[in-house]
Design goal:
single chain; alpha/beta; seven-stranded parallel beta sheet; three-stranded antiparallel beta sheet; about 20% strand; disordered N terminus
Length: about 270
């Protein structure tokens, strides 16, 4: 039995390592569902893989070795994470937008989910540095939906399909919008909002500076994660829309810095 148990553990860890390398990162809760084992078993597997240098553990999951603060998973890899939470967040955030508003959406998979909701809102002017977000509004109009005015900033494309760099920054600084919906790689009381991509950090700073109101849209797994570059303090966020998976203690801490924290799935 012991040999069989060890063999099963080795097989499981090989599958986990393959997922980490293929997708650029995994979450503990996803692995428990996929492999039908407990959180404790998955955490032991991650500990074992980390001890041999195969992966690096991050808050809530793991990334390839040597990639913790500088690793930036691609758009496709991130799209598969926390799908239900992102959809709930998007519905709550969309309710904050009135027809005719000028809104900005940063790059990210949660802002992409929000774009799918906002595509039905009339007379929007949308500023975005996200190619997938821009495509959502174009596809919706072709399918007979409202015609939004979309301003795509231009710039250099990042792994997360965001347009960043000096071209994007100059375009954004020339504009003013009612509300910015902002994604992030990590959220921390100490480090604020952060990303592994230095150029994306600067572009996010430009977006915040041009917004009358900043709404952070990020699921609970981002809490406690820290990327290489901080682009805003938590006090610069007016509203954080997250999901009900955020622990009560984390929500209480966040409210010390952010004026409004909405828990989608509970507050909607």
């Amino acid at each position: 039995m012991a040999d069989n148990a060890n063999l099963l553990a080795e097989q499981r860890r090989a599958l986990i390592l393959d997922e980490v390398r293929r997708r650029g990162g995994v979450r503990v809760n996803e692995l428990t569902r996929q492999l039908n084992v407990s959180d404790m078993t998955i955490r032991r597997d991650l500990d074992a893989l980390a001890r041999i240098g195969a992966i690096e553990k991050v808050h809530g999951g793991a990334v390839p070795a040597g990639a913790a603060s500088t690793h930036e998973p691609g758009f496709e890899a991130k799209s598969a994470l926390e799908l239900s939470a992102k959809e709930q967040i998007a519905r709550v955030a969309a309710a904050l937008v009135a027809p005719g508003a000028a809104v900005a959406l940063s790059g990210g998979t949660t802002t992409y989910a929000l774009a799918l909701e906002l595509a039905a809102v009339e007379r929007l002017t949308v500023v975005t540095n996200s190619v997938p977000v821009s495509d959502v509004f174009e596809a919706a109009h072709r399918a007979g939906g409202p015609a939004s005015t979309v301003v795509l900033t231009g710039g250099v494309r990042s792994p997360s399909d965001a347009l960043v760099g000096p071209v994007a920054d100059r375009a954004i600084r020339s504009l003013r919008f009612d509300v910015l919906f902002l994604g992030t790689h990590g959220i921390s009381p100490e480090a604020g909002l952060s990303t592994p991509n230095l150029a994306e950090a600067e572009t996010n700073r430009a977006l915040i500076a041009s917004a009358r109101r900043t709404v952070l849209v990020a699921d609970h797994t981002k809490w406690g994660t820290v990327g290489l570059s901080t682009f805003a303090g938590l006090a610069e966020v007016d509203t954080w829309v997250t999901d009900s998976g955020l622990p009560a203690a984390a929500a209480e801490t966040a409210r010390e810095y952010i004026g409004e924290v909405l828990l989608a799935g509970r507050d909607d």
